[in-house]
Design goal:
Strand order of the largest sheet: 1-2-3-4-5-6-7
CATH topology of the largest domain: TIM Barrel
Order of helices and strands: EHEHEEHHHHHEHEHEHH
Largest sheet: 7 strands, mixed
Distance between the termini: 36 Å
Number of domains: 2
Helix content: 40-55%
Strand content: 5-15%
Shape: globular
């Protein structure tokens, strides 16, 4: 059993990379991918933990793309974290994230929630700040008891303190992930709530830019969606991947590997992904 979608404290999960590997081993997984949002900073620790475990650790990332029709996330699996192209893209994303965070802080202060950058930053493992860290700071100061309440009232999309950030186009995301030697995969496509014809058009377009997979097996995908997505993979020669989208305590009923209990990602998916990944030469990796 494998799991190709998980998050650590380096983005919006509650477990360290080492804890994720330990949980994967306890769950009997043979492989686990770490796919933090917009960062690869947790991967060195994740890969090091994998060397001491029977669990094969797969380097990955999850990117948010600018797509008007619906939220679109793209996984990069089997990536080379040292890729120069990837590092350049992430620097651009983090610059935009910094600008967004300043806007959120200004809005919170204007609403009477006095916070400083340092109070928020201390909740981040690696200095990369996202909305969960704002929520943690607000809870620490006694404004809220639960993170979900912070998002419902202030930080959720279109709420009082929400601010959007810049994103790459889906095409650019796919191309950068491929340039980093990985396989680009549309994450949890059923969550986009697109019509079947529109999803097929999106897949066809991104396939032209190097799309290699579709996340078919996901805790939120009912059986009829899985069957449809499998047919899309067959029609466009894509790898049908899957994972729990594990975030730790943020979704306590969801388990690594098995999701809500019935998730099962076939073991041979990993070999199919590896066959499509493109190992980079030393020069390409740092260009």
């Amino acid at each position: 059993m494998i799991d190709l979608h998980s998050h650590s404290v380096f983005s919006d999960g509650t477990n360290t990379p080492e804890e994720l590997v330990a949980l994967a081993e306890e769950a009997g997984l043979t492989a686990l991918a770490l796919t933090d949002h917009d960062t690869v900073d947790g991967l060195p620790r994740f890969m090091a933990a994998g060397k001491e475990s029977p669990v094969e650790t797969i380097p990955g990332i999850e990117l948010s793309a600018e797509y008007a029709a619906a939220p679109l996330h793209l996984l990069g699996l089997c990536i080379n974290p040292a890729s120069g192209a990837l590092q350049e893209m992430l620097a651009w994303i983090q610059e935009g994230r910094h600008d967004r965070n300043l806007q959120i802080l200004e809005k919170l202060n204007a609403l009477g929630y006095e916070l400083t950058h340092d109070e928020i930053r201390k909740h981040s493992v690696d200095g990369i700040i996202g909305r969960p860290h704002f929520a943690a700071a607000l809870m620490e100061k006694g404004h809220f008891k639960h993170k979900q309440h912070v998002f419902r009232q202030l930080l959720g999309k279109n709420k009082a303190a929400y601010a959007d950030r810049r994103r790459l186009t889906p095409e650019a995301c796919v191309e950068h992930l491929c340039a980093a030697g990985g396989v680009a995969v549309i994450a949890h496509p059923a969550q986009m709530r697109l019509s079947r014809s529109r999803l097929r058009r999106l897949v066809k377009k991104l396939k032209e830019h190097g799309l290699g997979g579709l996340e078919v097996y996901h805790p939120t995908h009912p059986p009829h969606q899985v069957r449809f997505l499998l047919s899309v993979c067959e029609d466009y020669d894509l790898v049908a991947t899957g994972g729990s989208d594990f975030h730790g305590d943020l979704a306590p009923d969801l388990r690594l590997g098995t999701g809500f209990g019935d998730l099962h990602v076939p073991d041979d998916v990993l070999e199919k992904l590896k066959a499509r990944a493109t190992p980079l030469s030393g020069r390409e990796a740092t260009a």
